[in-house]
Amino acid sequence: MSAHKYPRHRQITLALSGASGAPYALALLRRLLASGIQVHLLVSSAARVVLATEEGEQWPGKPEHVAALLSERYQAAPDQLRVYGKEEWFSPVASGSGAPRRMVICPCSMGTVASIASGASDNLIERAADVVIKEKGQLILVPRESPFSALHLENLLKLARLGVTIMPASPGFYHQPRTIADLVDFMVARILDHLEVDQELVPRWGYGGAES
């Protein structure tokens, strides 16, 4: 399936910045691809360090090589996964006429939050987020920081007032997790629910699971 055959409601931009939380990002990517979503993937330099530290992942330097590696790993359809460098300003995500209307930054560093809140589109992740906000699309940020400073909270509040969804990586325990993967799946399920992508990882409250 070529790029133009994926309608916008079947496209999502997924960005990885330098906060802790690589397992969330990889699990979310895998689930999106398994759901038939076309993913536009953006990875910061700091995110590569986190991936290596937390998951032992050493991704190739060139975006096309990353796309090939991950497409084979997750059995993606041809052109289902598109990967861009941090300064590919002519990529679809950099323009309101081409960008998907939905974007998730997972994990999202406080530096990225601050840059988006100030409108400083200094790299493709920041520009893509700026595009989604100005086009009144859906932007979900998954910060992983503790504690939050007053500055962090002010930036998050500013973005929330603009319609950005702030979804901290703080999994619940009412589904009685037994493994780290269970905790990761909890957050991925919540993100997928907000994106309106079907998921069977964690039952919605009142529809089965630990509470029934």
What does the largest sheet look like? Answer: 6 strands, parallel
Low-confidence stretches: none
Distance between the amino and carboxyl termini: 41 Å
Structural class: alpha/beta
Strands across the major sheet, in which order?
Answer: 3-2-1-4-5-6
Proportion of residues in β-strands: 5-15%
Percent of residues in helices? 25-40%
**Average predicted confidence as pLDDT:** 92
What's the total count of β strands? 6
Radius of gyration from CA coordinates: 16 Å
Shape: globular
The helix tally amounts to: 7
Compressed to H and E, one letter per element, the order equals EHEHHEEHHEHEH
Q: Give the quaternary arrangement of the chains.
A: single chain
Please give the structural blueprint:
Elements: E1 11-16, H1 22-34, E2 38-43, H2 45-55, H3 63-73, E3 81-84, E4 102-108, H4 110-118, H5 124-134, E5 138-143, H6 150-161, E6 165-166, H7 180-195
Parallel strand pairs: 1-2, 1-4, 2-3, 4-5, 5-6
Helix pairs in contact: 1-7, 4-6
Short description:
The protein is built from 7 helices and 6 strands; from the N terminus they run E-H-E-H-H-E-E-H-H-E-H-E-H.
Task: Provide structural commentary.
By secondary structure, the protein is an alpha/beta fold. 39% of the residues lie in helices and 15% in strands. The chain is built from 7 helices and 6 strands. The chain has helices at 22-34, 45-55, 63-73, 110-118, 124-134, 150-161, 180-195, and strands spanning 11-16, 38-43, 81-84, 102-108, 138-143, 165-166. Strand 5 (138-143), helix 6 (150-161) and strand 6 (165-166) form a beta-alpha-beta unit. Helix 4 (110-118) packs across helix 6. The chain starts with 10 loop residues before the first strand and ends in a 17-residue tail after the last helix. The model has no long low-confidence stretch (mean pLDDT 92).
